[in-house]
Amino acid sequence: HGSNEQYIDKNYGNLLIIWDKMFGTFEPEKEPVTYGLVKNVNTFNPVTITFMGWKAIMDDIKQSKSISQALHLFFGPPNTRSKEMF
């Protein structure tokens, strides 16, 4: 997965590009892809790395002001958190 801003949450299809074309997640590579994580991880513990995204979601849900915000954070697309929510 690329960590460039324009490639975040894009090009999931790997070998079958048809899925990205169907669901609108295709992004042509216009500049070289920088592979890796967007945010540095300060651990080598695979369990921590695996669940760090879920922990961030749960932390946001705990801070949400309403049930609808919490549901939107949990079931919504990636990066749905906005400054207006908190």
Would you give an account of this structure?
This protein is mainly α. The protein folds into two domains: 1-38, no CATH class; 41-86, no CATH class. The chain is 38% helix and 0% strand. It contains three helices and no strands. It has helices at 18-23, 46-63, 67-75. Helix 2 runs antiparallel to helix 3 (67-75). The chain is globular and about 40 Å long. The chain starts with 17 loop residues before the first helix and ends in an 11-residue tail after the last helix. The model has no long low-confidence stretch (mean pLDDT 85).
Rough outline:
globular
How many E-type strands?
Answer: 0
SS-based class: mainly alpha
Tally of helical runs = 3
Mean pLDDT equals: 85
Termini Cα gap: 29 Å
Strand content: under 5%
Q: Please indicate the count of domains.
A: 2
Q: Percent range for helical residues? A: 25-40%
Describe the biggest sheet?
none
Keywords:
single chain; 86 residues; mainly alpha; 2 domains; 0% strand
In short:
This protein is an all-alpha fold and 86 residues long. It has helices at residues 18-23, 46-63, 67-75.
Topology:
Elements: H1 18-23, H2 46-63, H3 67-75
